[in-house]
Amino acid sequence: MNNTFTKQDLRRIYKEKRNALFQDGFISEISDIICKKLARCIFFKSAKNILIYYPKDSELNTSQLLKEQDKKFYLPRCYENNLLICKYKMGDELLLNKYKIYEPVCEPISDLGILDIVVTPALCADKNFHRIGYGAGYYDRLFSNKNIKAKKVIIIPDKMLLEKIPCDTYDKKCDIIITEKRILENFSSY
């Protein structure tokens, strides 16, 4: 990828690429493969509390992870400039927020230290474990919380994995990237 692309350029380019995958019907297949790979990982098998996200538009769908009976799942809720983390199970009430994302309505948890995994949405990511999200900074602020010890996992189609993307000092690296073709681990973050 050309180093002259800005984050905004990459957001536009990779949103279009992901939308094309969605229209071709591949996003469902890729979601299925990636979620199965994630569920087979040792760190996932030993995890108890997992933050996932509710998919918007052509995002990878994490809902099949909810079938894992021995896990507790959580969804984020936007509140001012932060994410509140709320327990979630299939069938719980959800409301559409200002970003057109479904969110839980229950009370948020107070102890973020219980989270073992944070499945992190991204439009694209690089092999240095940086990601480009939608630009609001919610997950970077969440990862700045000193109580968060969870493994930060990016799930993306392999076509969205780049060599290097622009990053700023406030951008937080993730620990693991899972695509339909590979799993990359950032061993320096452990």
Terminal-residue CA separation:
28 Å
Global structural class: alpha/beta
Question: How much of the sequence is in beta strands?
Answer: 15-25%
Low-confidence stretches: none
- The DSSP helix count reads 4
The string of secondary-structure elements, in order, is HHHEEEEEEEEHEEEE
Main sheet characteristics: 7 strands, mixed
- The portion of residues assigned to helices is 10-25%
Shape assignment: globular
Major beta sheet, strand line-up = 3-2-1-6-9-11-12
Using only C-alpha atoms, the radius of gyration works out to: 16 Å
Number of E-type strands: 12
Nearest-integer average pLDDT: 92
Short key terms for the protein model shown above:
3-stranded mixed sheet, alpha/beta, globular, 4 helices, single chain, 190 residues
Structure report:
This protein is α/β, with parallel strands linked by helices. Helices cover about 25% and strands about 25% of the residues. It has a seven-stranded mixed beta sheet, with helices on both faces. The longest helix is centred in the N-terminal third of the chain and has 17 residues, at about 5-25. The chain is globular and about 45 Å long.
